[in-house]
Amino acid sequence: MFATGVAANPLSWPAIHEKNLRVLAGSPLDFSQIFPAQPVTQGVVVRHGHLFHGNQRIRFLAAVMPMQKVFGGVPTHTDAREYAVELRRRGYNLVRFVSLQDVLMSGRKKNFDYDPVKLDRLFYLLAELKKQGIFWEMDIISWENGAFAKKNRYGRGESEYLRSRLYYDPEAMKHWQQIVRMLFLKKNPYTNMSTLADPALAVVTLVNENDLLQTINITQRVSNWLPEGVKNKLNRHFQISLLQYKKTNHKEKTEPSLFDKYDDADPLLSRLVAFATQRTEAIHQSMSKYLRSQGYHGLITADNNDGGQIGSAFGRVSLDLVTMHAYHDHPAELGTKSQKLGPKRKYVLTSSLKDRLAYLRHAFITRQKDKPFILDEYNHAYPNPWRREAGLLVPAFAAWHDWDGIARFARPVELAYGHTPAPRQHYITAFGVGMDPVSRAGEVLAALVFRRGDVPSAKKKNQQCWYLDPEEFDSDSTAWQRWPDALSLTGLEKSIAVSFRKPTRNTKNTCIPLHPETVRTYIANTWKMRQHLPTSFSSQYITLNQTSVKITSKRTEALALGEEKKLSTEHLAVRSSGELAVSVSSLDMRSVAASHSLLMTFVTDARSSHMDMRGGILRSHGELPVRVRPVTATITLKREAGACAMKLYALSLRGQQQQKISLTKTTLKNGQCSLQANIDIARMKQPSLFFHWVSIDQ
After folding, report:
1. Rounded to the nearest 10 degrees, what angle do helices 170-179 and 267-293 cross at?
2. 523: CB partners within 8 A, 6+ apart
3. What share of the chain is helix, strand, coil (3-state, %, to 5)?
4. Alpha-carbon distance 673 to 682, whole Å?
5. What pLDDT, on the 0 to 100 scale, is given for residue 510?
């Protein structure tokens, strides 16, 4: 099937029969005591390049919540209260709302005619989140049609191409501003203030995903990405900019096209980059000025997609924070088969360790020095059987790099399997985190490793910064290229950032200068380097190679075995019959060796029953129940003196005790001991991904 060690017949995998997915209050999966919440009464601010709430540093563990009909729609008032409580118990303190225009305008016949029932439900949900101490992040526009009464994406129904038109069409900008007035300035009856004025609105995304440089790049490769009318108008503005740039030599092209492909040495390529980046920054500044004029005091971001292209970073310099998306094995859409299946998708089905976390390294290099950074979408997409890697590595590296937020896409909280008739609550989808036990386990670890900070951030000696002069790159075609591996690979061992701000007389540039010729040398060596990548990387707390991962810190230790049969960290050792990820985290703030309450995740693979995957193409999502790949493993935990009297329980997805596991104790020197447990998923009453090591006295 997918890889060596994967069972030949997934229908033989044991099924999860529990339906209710609400975390049980007071259970080991309820993090309310670790993250006590207070209603939001003041906004988030930036200090020292990070986010603060009052006098406290805040990190966002964010939940991305699309609410289209296929996901179950906008929650009812009853469900909204339950979602808010569930999000808090799971450790989330930010919800990112995407595609709001798509949701509120679905089926409407007039522009800006938001569905009143959905709008009321949205406002109620916002109020309930605020009561639970959960902030909001919102896109003003996520896709192409904004508040137009049309279907919303490229190639699906009619499109207004709003995102691309913003770069040249005053009417598109007026439409964007009207969205702000009609939706964000509308009074919420449950908070008694507008969304824009509410301190709970921590982040506004001006425009979701591609900037103009990326749009040009995609259009050069995908002929039907933009219609001819939009391309012609963008091209006309490009030609006007060339006429204004007297030094440009374009005698061979009387009417050069923005969407032609140019050699690196062609001066038109550098002018293309300058046009795209300057136009992007100009609309950022215009939109930001408008939001401020309407009373918004929170943080502003935009263009959170594809961190690879160097020039795309220039448009983010004037924004309050950088947000980014990063995906491993993001499926290619092959066309829509049915409403239930959605887009037919093809996968590569590889481990992210094989290319040394390329998807995450593309995010590393987009972080800007002295500016907050949030990875507000990431995923290692289902049904890739190695997606458990993301649950360990993204939170650990995010903590090590000292980021300000992470969000695994999407819907990490579902109230129950089959909670509504909506298709995507009856099987796991590519990005259906809440339906996927593997991704849910990763999110549990993310709350502890990242939000709680179990992996400490890098000290100054383990930080690296590069300085690029935007003016120098503005007149050079190098900004069209992608960041070379030689720079992003540094992020696997050090915390990295890039600076675009020129040092002043009163500031010292502590970053290494990068000139275009230096970057070109790195780029020239990129393909050679990819053939001879180092086999392993190690920071102070994280070690990885092509098949395995180890994370070792005071309160959390974790590992992922690939081809190895056994692997160990300082206090945790695993011997397994197949590929597996295991973590142990202290719940009482003691060290792993001394804790009286440890939460363990035990993650193999999971998929929907009767899922049909052939030739890398997902042909059917399958159905409930979800099944877990069986594995047998021996877990050994070293304990300090006085912490040897322990019990071990298998937990349900809610955190409820469902089976006691036998332990074998071995006495070591100085009163220390090791506790050993044998776990066989196939022989359990129900397959478990969560286990609780707890003192006999508790």
Report:
1. 40
2. 478, 481, 482, 484
3. 30, 25, 45
4. 29
5. 84
What is the structure's pLDDT at 71? 94
Which of 154-163, 325-334, 653-662 has the largest mean confidence? 653-662
Q: How far apart are CA 390 and CA 442, in angstroms?
A: 7
Residue closest to 14 by CA, chosen among 679, 598, 692: 679
Q: What is the mean pLDDT of the chain?
A: 92
pLDDT at 588 (0 to 100): 97
First-to-last alpha carbon distance for the chain, in angstroms, is 44
The two beta strands, 580-586 and 556-561, are: antiparallel
pLDDT value at position 491? 97
User: What is the residue type of 585?
Assistant: S
Q: Which helix (H) or strand (E) covers residue 378, if one does?
A: strand 373-380
Query: Taking phi first (over 0 means left), then psi (-120 to 50 degrees means alpha), and beta for anything else, what does residue 306 get?
Result: left
Between CA 361 and CA 355 the distance in angstroms is: 10
**Burial of 432 (C-beta count, 10 Å sphere; 0-12/13-18/19+):** buried
Q: Where are the alpha helices (DSSP H) in 344-425?
A: 358-364, 388-400
Tell me the chain's radius of gyration from C-alpha atoms.
25
CA 63 to chain centre: 9
Distance CA 376, CA 484 (A): 23
Say if CB 418 and CB 624 are below 8 A apart.
Answer: yes
Structure-token match 């290229």, residue found = 481
Return the pLDDT at 230.
95
18 C-beta neighbours (distance < 10 Å), count:
16
- How large is the angle between the packed helices 388-400 and 437-446, nearest 10 degrees? 20
C-alpha dist (Å) from residue 200 to 265, 479, 612: 49, 37, 43
> 674 CB contacts (<8 Å, ≥6 apart)?
636, 637, 638, 639, 665, 666, 668
What whole-number distance in Å separates Cα of residue 549 and Cα of residue 555? Answer: 17
Q: Is the dihedral of CA 152, 124, 446, 625 positive or negative?
A: negative
In this structure, is the dihedral angle defined by the CA atoms of residues 195, 196, 199 and 205, taken in order, positive or negative?
Answer: positive
Lowest mean pLDDT among 200-209, 264-273, 542-551: 264-273
Measure the CA angle with vertex 392, ends 561 and 539; round to 5°: 90
CA distance 398 to 329: 20
Q: Residue 154: pLDDT above 60?
A: no
Question: SS in 3 state form for 144-166?
Answer: CCCCCCCCCCCCCCCCCCHHHHC
Q: pLDDT tens across 64-73, in order? A: 999 999 999 9
Query: Is 331 within 8 Å of 341 (Cβ atoms)?
Result: no
Q: What is the DSSP letter of 309?
A: B
User: According to the model, what pLDDT value does residue 4 have?
Assistant: 36
Compute the distance between CA of residue 302 and CA of residue 325 in angstroms, rounded to an integer. 11
CA 98 to chain centre: 13
pLDDT digits (tens, 9 = 90+) for 204-258: 999 999 999 999 999 999 888 999 999 999 999 999 999 877 554 545 455 789 9
| Amino acid found at 261 | K
Q: How many CA atoms lie within 13 A of 129 on its CB side?
A: 29
Going from the C-alpha of 679 to that of each of 7, 638, 685, the distances in angstroms are 17, 17, 12
Strands (E), 158-200: 187-188, 193-194
Residue type, 504: T
Q: Which residue has the tokens 């329980």?
A: 649
Q: pTM, whole model, 2 decimals?
A: 0.96
